[in-house]
């Protein structure tokens, strides 16, 4: 049984009484220890789908299940990493990581256990030296490390990530990609990561899924079996890269350039 599954998800919105469907009849199974890269151009419902998978929004149609039970609200075994770090500016790194661990929705932990979990998470993302620093003192990469630590401290079984490294420079992005893959593997977690970057999906994912068309639907899927790390193996995955680009062009018309749908190559 998959840890997380989505069945026949349809998403849309109503404007002036007219319904617009953005994603139609999408299904997904996430296995234990699997990292799925969810790709596609802007406007096909990737981020909206991620919010539904997190229990933060409801679909027009379909159902999400976590551990075989219908998901109707956020669950402590799901962790969410946003595109921006979303840190509380008046709290230091340690307090940002620990924020919410004592909420009723979280598993009950004693104060000492919470403190130990926070310190371990901060150490795992390489920020022990910065635990007393405030968000205004952090670089973009450091701030996103805090976001990863905040999720890590909750020990989720499934991570949901919405383009978490898109605002970072190339060098920092590479470091963060390696860190994420290490954390996911070390804790045997599963993950669904939204990305516009084909190379990022090829570098990180066990399985890459492409959404395209209007309304959005799955138009391709690739199993990626090369061992990690893969930064030096991108040339070996060039055939998959070409197939993804071709599938996107086929879905949106040959005359339309990939760049016009804001898909990074």
TrEMBL record:
Cited SMART domains: AAA
PROSITE patterns tied to this protein: ABC_TRANSPORTER_1 (PS00211), ABC_TRANSPORTER_2 (PS50893)
Keywords for the protein's UniProt record, in alphabetical order: ATP-binding, Cell membrane, Membrane, Nucleotide-binding, Transport
Domain ABC transporter: 6-238
Signal sequence range: none
InterPro entries: AAA+_ATPase, ABC_transporter-like_ATP-bd, ABC_transporter-like_CS, ABC_transporter_ATP-bind, P-loop_NTPase
Recorded GO MF terms: ATP binding; ATP hydrolysis activity
Family as reported in the entry's similarity comment: Belongs to the ABC transporter superfamily.
Protein name: ABC transporter ATP-binding protein
